[in-house]
Amino acid sequence: MTAVLEVRGLVKVFPGVTALAGVDLDVEAGEVHCLVGQNGAGKSTLIKCVSGAALPTSGTIRLLGQDLTTGRPGAALSAGVATMYQELDLVPDLSVSANIFLGHERRIGPLLDRRAMRREATELLARLGHATLDPDAQVADLRPADRQLVSMARALSRDVRLLIMDEPSAILDPPEVDALFEVVRRLTSAGVGVVYISHRLDEIARIGDRVTVLRDGKTVASNLPATTSADQLVHLMIGRSFREVFPERSAPRSDVVLRVRRLSRRPDLAETSFEVRAGEILGVGGLVGAGRTELLRAIAGLDPVDGGEVTVAGRALPRDRPDLAVAAGIGVAPEERKSQGLWLDWNQVRNVTICDLPRLGRGPFTDAAAEHRAAAAQLRSLDVRPDDPRRLASELSGGNQQKVVLARWLLHASAVLLLDEPTRGVDVGAKADVYRVIAELAARGLAIVMVSSELAELVGFCDRILVMREGAVVAELRGEHATEELILRHALRTGHDAPGVSP
Amino acid sequence: MTMEALRRVRVQEVALPLVVVLLVVVGTVLRGTIFFSTANLWNVLVQASVAGTVAVGMTFVIATGGIDLAVGSVLAAAAIVGGHYFHGAGAAWFMAGTVLAAAVAGAVNGIAVAWLRIVPFVATLAMLAAARGVAQQISHQTPVALYDLEALTRIGSQRVLGIPIPAIVFLIVVALGWVLLNRTRYGRYVIAVGGNREAARIAGIRVRPILFSVYVLVGVCTGIASVLQTGQLASASPVVGLGLELDAIAAVVIGGTSLAGGHCSMVGTFFGVITFALIFNLLTLENVESQVQQILRGVIILGAVAIQRRGH
User: Across the A/B interface, how many CB contacts are shorter than 8 Å?
Assistant: First the structure.
């Protein structure tokens, strides 16, 4: 067999975060190579580097024995790399054939040769075993499975040697998954190398030839046989090398602050109910796309819900009114901190006081001195560095930006904090600092819901953990029963039920 | 304030006054006291007053990331509505009716943008067409003479403390606009919504009422400008205000307010207005034909915005 892809010592450093710290990957012609790892292990960054969407900091990528020009999607495409991302990159308003030939349309002189594209599209779809798909149909009208076929046909329309599939089965029903695997086998028998990323570990034995495991941006196991057990893979994905140090926590109090009852928003969120007490940190685990962010947004009234009720300190919140949720004491620290949490070109003071202008001003007017005093006190209590409230938010590190968001809700005397991946994009060293602040807030009696993809964070830091999968809470784990394996198993649906689980 | 912030926010507030000084020097060198006289300089402010008053409201709209293309048509329609329905009741009623009519047009824009979620460009483009039609329909395409409203015509003829009334009104509107934008909670919310709509929502700011309000605000400013205009002409005409939106938007953008929202400067808008007025005053004194002035207007807008983009 010949090597299609050889990745050696790949490193990718983003400002403040090392996403890849030396990754090796070998894919041979005609094989399906599965790539597994936790959220944030570096899978997405790796495929972005291979497909040219990101420029690696160091390391080599060789395709069919040739060094690949990195950081140029065009170079990767013409070298035969095709990528199917999770969010399919199709143009919904164009037809199937137009999408397949997007960017390399068949032409007669300056005009589009629609007939040739239609004919070739049908041929490509026939090669995938789906000759019946109408090349004139609008992509917007297709089912997800058919869209995926279009995406694959597009990959085939160029001379593809390596196909990267990022969670292709995530949006498919079981029969559709069977059909997908059939298509993948047709491709590999034609000599195409496939990198297959999936969180469904049970699929690996069915479709894969070999497995590589990533953790913390490194290859921790490569070229394992596809028969490797799910237990062993989970163990490799979690690792035991790295332990966070979490601050001491005081015990939660008995009074319930946040009560969520049968809250639902189809199809993202099935009916969900839980309570959070004062001083409690409730962790929410699950894979990306399991509905965790949607849960937080539904609680805060940011997205319309189908049904259910949220009460804060016994008082029900009206629906679809984020302003009244804030007034009732709900504070949100969104995962997209820069685009949703902050005004980056505002100084820290303004970012902190935005919810409290009526209280800090006189009549309709703002009072800059009062704002500065109030904000500076909160920022100092959270130890924001540098200690200069006039510094713009854009000039702060990720951890300090997070503290600015928290300072806003502290100043507002919020009773509930909804934290979405609070340590995402925060340096390893600064994470301990963020944990300390969150622990302090809990000790002050705030009820905290914390969505996290870091299993160690959930197990080591939270009083209770809800695990979500496909929009529903599938398990609730109490502190002493929670282990990283257990969380991951529930999140992945590997079929085991472990003791200590109340579904 | 850091250097970066200084560069980003304050460049127009520093550079534009220098441009204004430069224009005054050039004008004085070229035309001497014909240009550099109290009479002519007040005249510049009077010429700037209509577009300038509108530009104050426009600054708020653009700060939210919106735009109002309808101000020229609304200016005409408001005066026609005022002249047609409130003429007999006296000058005060005429003024109130005109401002109210323009505010209603702004409210319609605001509802279309905030609640019907129509892009501001399209919503106000529709109003641009409709308001002009209203003006022509009500007036039967003929101007409404308002000579008999003495209190109104005084706007064009009298001075207070030696200052022409339109100039006074313009300066007051600018000052109020500055306070509203920079010293009130409302102004902060406008900038917050323009700078990061989702962050504003998460922080509990009611985004739609803010979006709605800025269109009402520019409507009120347009109504005031309409009163200034009719006062100077002593009549309400269905064809005034053509291209007014261009003058107002250009002044705001040259003043450093970003069309993307979130960055805005009332001081910049003021100097943007003055810069334009000085340039066209000079060109007129130099007997440059109005068609040529119109071409230069386009060139200046393009050049100024290109320079501004390089600062970002």
Answer: 74
